[in-house]
Every structure is written in structure tokens, then in C-alpha cells.
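Could you please consider the sequence and fold appended to this message?
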Amino acid sequence: RPPRAPAPTCCICINCKLVDRCKLYHWVEEMHQQPHLTEEADFDPSDPQVQVFLRNEEEAENVADGRPLLTTEYDVFACDAFALDKGRWLRLVPDAEYAPT
């Protein structure tokens, strides 16, 4: 049987020249409850592709009455507007307490 979805990859946005202007990445930040790179994103890519992962977080069992907590992760894996700028996100947020994957 063929796989139902592409193999997981990391979010390509962290290496994109437009990450700080992108409305889709702004939405991803909201979904992950992370601070925005910019308050007003002004670029809207026309054909991004997003993988959505649902995971059980075993270490969160005590918080959810003994049941594993379900978490959601969003990763952009393809985008018509992707412009390679390796390490762009890290240069914009060098002291981040988190790192997107």
C-alpha cells in the first residue's frame, strides 16, 4: 500500500527569506502559541502545503486526568514562494527559548 501522506519533514519556513513577512507562517506561529516574528505579515503565498501531525504527549498524562494529551503540530513542507535563506529564522530570533522543527 502506498503511504497516505509524505514522510514527515521539518518546516521549510525556518530557511525561507520571506519567513518574517509570510501570512502563513504568522498563522503557524498562532497555532503553536509562539511569539510572532512580526505583528503585521504582508506576504501571502499562493500555494503552500502544510503537514498536520497529531501526537499523544505521554509526559502530559497527569494534566489530562491520566489520559495522554493530544497535541497538534503544523509544518510547511512545500511552498511556491519559498526562497532559500539558510538559517533566516535563527538570525531573526537568536535568543529564542524554543526552536521550530
Observations:
- The first helix runs from residue 23 to 31.
- The chain has a mean pLDDT of 85.
- Strands lie at 49-57, 69-78.
